[in-house]
# Entry
Amino acid sequence: MARTSERNEVDAFVGARIGLRRSALGLSQTALARELGVSFQQVQKYETGQNRISASRLHRAATVLATSVEAFFPPIETVQGEGDEAGWEALRHITETADGRAVASAFPLIADREVRRAVARVVRALSRR
# Structure
């Protein structure tokens, strides 16, 4: 039973990462769908983890999104259960909205570590309201 749940979490993680990368590149779900040979609804299902993406299609997505297949997966220690469960939930929540995806894709581009920390403090403070 735990294996099914684990796979679903990984599917959701992979889908969320696809959505983040697509969004960061300014690509619509329709444009990605066209490149993958599927409907935009299917891309939505991949991004929410509702449907699993096949290995060959994931490889194609990585090519289209100019990244590696590995970039879509969580670290192995997280998959094995040593990671933070809240991290899975946070990733799911932040990718639910266009604003969340924009923040998630732009945040790592902030070069100054102190500025990133300040932004994180502001977000945490605002979320407590």
